[in-house]
Amino acid sequence: MKIGKYSIGCGDRFAQEASAQLKAYEKIAGDGINVIPVWNKSNREHEIIGTEPSSVRDAAATAVREAGWPGEWYVDADHINLGTVDRFIKPSDFFTLDVADGIGGSVDEVEIDSFLNNHANLVDHHLDIPGISEPFVIDTEIAQAITRNYLPAVKDAGMIYRHILDSKGEGNFIPEISMDETDTPQGPAELLLILAAIADEGIPVQTIAPRFSGRFNKGVEYVGDPKVFAIEFEADLMVLRYAAEALGLPENLKLSVHSGSDKFAIYPEINGLLKKHDAGLHLKTAGTTWLEEIIGLAESGGAGLDLAKTVYTEAYRQKEALCAPYAEVINIDYAKLPETGVVAGWSSEEYVRALRHDASDELYNIDLRQLIHVGYKVAAEMGDVFLEALTEHRESVARNITYNLYERHIKPLFR
Predict the structure, then answer these.
(1) Which of 21, 182, 209, 362 could form a Cys-Cys staple with 256, CB 3.0–4.6 A?
(2) What are phi and psi for residue 230, nearest 5 degrees?
(3) Reported CATH class of domain 6-286
């Protein structure tokens, strides 16, 4: 099983939007560009909503069958570890091995020495990596520090991979390794040694998600200098290409950009570099589908708008509890959240403009958007009331989801 060049992970918290999402991939296919859908939903989201991973595959398979989708598609066991992977093994064929928690873990000094001896050609040598203008040297002290920090995480990935392998069999799933949910960015030197450790573990990794510099908050814009990001991204592309050949990793190994959701500011940089180097990409859009559901409901007016207002009211009331699990990836100023009484008086247009990610709109509220992003538990507690509202207002909801995924994510990245 080998994933193609371009792929986008699309979350669907309530497993209601697979058809609307697939229409976005059909539209880009109509433009002559193949982008592969990868439906994902994390263990945390399943726990909060009360669903099973099989529901993601069921929804995706139905959408694919009804649309007659002829291309690849996958279901991602999103951000799993050894303690959570088992419930995902049967319905998933793409596994994001999230080992960020293992960074900085304990490791025997003998293992560090053994690793560096095995890869002596990468240490204290001028490495001429095609596409990187200046040779760089990873001196022994730096290499030891990098290995000490990241080898435990890669060994965790090895254990998870082999556990999945025992059940799925070789070649029957796509392994991705994620190290993005950590505070410290990984530069080209770190990435190269991480890839060497991955090769030693025998993991045929096809995508890897490092931590880039800047801040990637959920549901809102990238915080940082896009030009600095571009320098890092290009160097990482070159390291992956070099590592695939030098370390015997899969030739289709590609970068994955995970964190955050609406990374619009860096899409032009990514687009240009993918074309420049004829490189592949995997990207996750995280919870944007859920936000577009609320936008679609609010846009519908009447009962849909009332439900969207109720979601905000309850999210505001529970804001501390809802935000706590996402503290590292949101940045909400509670003082800038509108009072619930104010929102109760909003028109459809006012609600939509406050929530929709359009930085040029004076009504756009970045704090409200982040709160709604993490507030999907409120909708889950509504049960059938919320799901029936999605059905009742299907046209508006689906239109917003397809437009957002195609026009604001897929097209800027790949056209």
Answers:
(1) 209
(2) -60, -40
(3) alpha beta
